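Weekly structure sync, notes
Attendees: PL (lead), two postdocs, one rotation student
Agenda item 3: pending single-chain targets
PL asked that the sequence for the first pending target be pasted directly into the notes so everyone works from the same version. It is reproduced below exactly as submitted, 83 residues in total.
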Amino acid sequence: MKDDLQRRMLLRSIRVERKSISYLRWLLESHDGLATPTTREGTDDIVDLMVAPDMALDLDDLLAALAVEMPLEHVPCPSVPPL
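Predicted structure, written out during the meeting:
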């Protein structure tokens, strides 16, 4: 079941300042679980975001708005999904 769920989920990866990660988590939680953030192992500034396909556009809109507010850079997704 977990593998089936991961196949249906999309992944976005971003680099943000370490001090902004808790703010990002708070924003995602306040948007009814828009995405599940995971800090990438071995880094302290890359966050992988698991998002349901029907929520991907909303997440992209939120990330675009955040990029105006704070340094935010899209980075390549890992070859193996987190979790």
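Discussion points:
- The mean pLDDT is 89.
- The chain has one domain: 2-74.
Action: rotation student to compare against the earlier draft before next sync.
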